[in-house]
Amino acid sequence: MRGRVAGSSPGGRGAGGLIPQVAVILGSLLLALTALPAAAVPRYTTAYVPDVPDPPRQGAQLVLTREQFVRINRLKPEEISLDGEPIGVLPQKTWLLADIAPGRHCLHGLVEGDDLWFDARDGRRYLLRLRETIDEGDHLRQAWLFDDPRMAGRIVREGHLPMVRTTADGLRRIRKHMHPVESQDPLAIEPRGKATFPGILLERPLDPVNIRHEFADEPGTLVVESDEIRYAAPHEHVVIPLADVIRVRYGGTRYSNQIPWIDVEYRDPSSGEQRLDSFADSNPDQATATYTRIFEMLDGSFDRTGSESRDDRGPIPPLR
Question: Which of these, 275, 117, 268, lies nearest to 188 by C-alpha position?
Answer without folding.
Answer: 117
